[in-house]
Amino acid sequence: MKSGLVSRAPAARSLCCRISLQRDSSIQSMADLSPYKIIAVATTFSPRFMEVLAEAKRIRERFPADLHLIYVGERNEETANKFRNVLTELHLPPDSMVHYEQGDPADAILRTLAREKIDVIVAGALEKEVVLHPFLGNVARRLVREAACSVVLFTKPEVKPKPLRRIVFVADYSDHGLQALKRTLPFAAAESCERLYVIRIITTFDQARESIRVNARRDEKPRAEDEEAAVEEFVLSAGATDVPIEARCIRGNTGLAASDFVQSVKADLLVVPVQKSAEAIQQLPSNIAWVTDVIPCNLWIIR
After folding, report:
1. Is residue 191 a part of any domain in this protein?
2. Angstrom distance (rounded) from CA 280 to CA 276
3. Domain range holding 63?
């Protein structure tokens, strides 16, 4: 079957501060329906400070929730004023919680995510303003590998975010994967997504493992013959949607074939569902582990 469109560390201290003002009641009622209750943004006073916070605002508009800011540095009048001013300028709640942390930036952010039970963290993906290759920065890499919550990384954040027109979703057929797709569909619709690609990554290793399984059970047919149908069935099981969806099987020697595909369709966002783990390192599927180093576009890890 051809793939195609489917209809439908050392001890460190922390400090948090809230500027007390009344919260918008309409946002509160919408937040009750959101899968995310607390959205955090990793902030620094870098050249991209405003841009990353603006992208966090985009995520909060899609998933109404409390907004927390995580800042690794001292709290003083100057930093408090900077946060107050930028929140006001971006029309974000001026009473948003700001967590002032000390220590290694990645350690401090991860510690805060766990302590505050954050549902999703938004951050910039790259450490430098201009890079020749889209490699993850150290903090972003550790968030992908170690955060127990969902992670959204932006490679080129903007003060006025552009719609995410082309989105690639990596299917794994699990219950978590299905729920992640259901979460992605309304997000894609809100972004006026022109095409949502739901892909199944099949590496040479996957094919070899399948061949061994079939040889051991000669009464079964290779699953690879039905992979295209399985992807489409997975998409249909997520329910009706107006978002144009294209189901694809991506085959290659390694998972990097998926990275090539993401770049070939000029995707704006790559969505990867990953099961939560009790381990310190959150293991990504082997065919998608490359995203901890190379990031072809904005990335949303759904845990």
Report:
1. yes
2. 10
3. 9-160
